[in-house]
Amino acid sequence: MKHFIIKLTGVTLTIALLGGLVFSLFLPGYYIAILPFLLLFFFVVTLLIHAYQLKQSKKEIGKFARSNMLITFFKLVLFSVVAISYIAVDPKNALVFVICLMILYLIFTFLEVSEITRSSKENKKK
Fold it and tell me: Which range of residues forms the domain containing residue 54?
């Protein structure tokens, strides 16, 4: 878990740095103040879900697969609620928000899936 926290923190800081550069140098008119909070939200959700999935991966494969599908559904619903809520509050910046949300979703999901796959392979070797 410690390895994942370090990797997750590194990815989050890298995204923050790259996002800061992109929005300050190339797209300054498109920056919205909620983006750092969105990044923090993804960090926390990914960390909590990964910790839960690590516990589930030690159980039998059927239970792990079912819980993994439920978690994926839960994440999609949660992120959809966040998107819809933001769009309702600030429809003017909806496109920028949704694009940033999707980019973060893809990055953090890729990280989460690759780490849980690596972790479950290590559990099988033991």
Answer: 2-125
